[in-house]
Design goal:
By secondary structure, this protein is mainly alpha-helical. It contains six helices and no strands. It has one domain.
Length: 129
Amino acid sequence: MGFLKPHADKIYAVMRIFVGLLFMSHGLQKIFGFFPVENPQAMPPFVQYGAGGIELVGGALVAIGLFAAPAAFICSGMMAAAYFMAHASNGFFPIMNKGELAVLYCWTFFVIAAKGAGIWSVDAARTKS
């Protein structure tokens, strides 16, 4: 079933943009308090500003496709660390320890780091010039 194959580059670009924007929203929430939650949890400053900064800047870079591969690699590593620091001690399986989002972000960013920004990105525009 290769009916989407002609559109694979466009689908990848849209996925990269959406994943970057979604990840960026976590940084906006941690640093600026956008998208408030009902029961906010107190965060140590290194989580609020360290992780929040990586989420905000890394998500933005991935979304626009500027230095997307290295930014995605850093975001992937941060999500792996977040999984093992915050979730893994609550059970082995992500469905049990509420770590599914961390695992999905980790592996999605890892794929972006391997594949690069693709079309509709600043990186692609810079290589054309």
